[in-house]
Amino acid sequence: MVCRPVWFVAALATSALLLACSGASDPAADVAAAPIEITGRYEMSGVTTTPGSDQKRKIHGTIVLQEKDDAYTASFEFKTNFPGEGPPVDADVIGVGEGMIVGRTLAGTAKTQIVVSSVPGLDTGFAYFPRLVSARIVSNSVGEFQDDGTLHIEIESKAAEGELDYQSTRTKMRGKRIGGIGAEGFKPNPAGPQGDQESS
Q1: CATH of the domain at 109
Q2: Domain membership flag for residue 6
Q3: Which of 19, 66, 117, 174 is the most exposed place for a label (fewest CB within 10 A)?
Q4: Model's pTM, two decimal places?
């Protein structure tokens, strides 16, 4: 029988443990490395704030994302309250965007307009009543997918060049993919519906 020093036996045990661990798969790492299916429809919700003021309003709606190579295009339609001279009015936020994909991060720009009903308290989709289109808005956005598939987006918006009737805002939203685009995909016109609007 050959006796070995305690330190020698411990070294062998440590080496075996390291070899075993090197071949094992880390479930957390596998989840983090799993690819995210970007193309699809996302149900989003969040809050829009106006820097330098206490103005805050909820916003919710749908984003349609389409991935192509390392780029994406987006179209969106949200509901929010738009501040006016009187009480806030219901408004639609519609637009299109595009950008680049780096890992799980989406960074890009968007062109947006806000559509409000000409009749306070009346939904913008109500037939036969004219709608008003706000100033053109441009935005920079950064989105990031979490391990559970949740999409977090931060948006900085300001009036487009030559437009004065819009205060800069910051929006934070989160949501999840609710399906593919298919026949249900949409691409709203950032200029708003035609034939029944006036510029505000």
Answers
A1: 2.40.160.20
A2: no
A3: 19
A4: 0.69
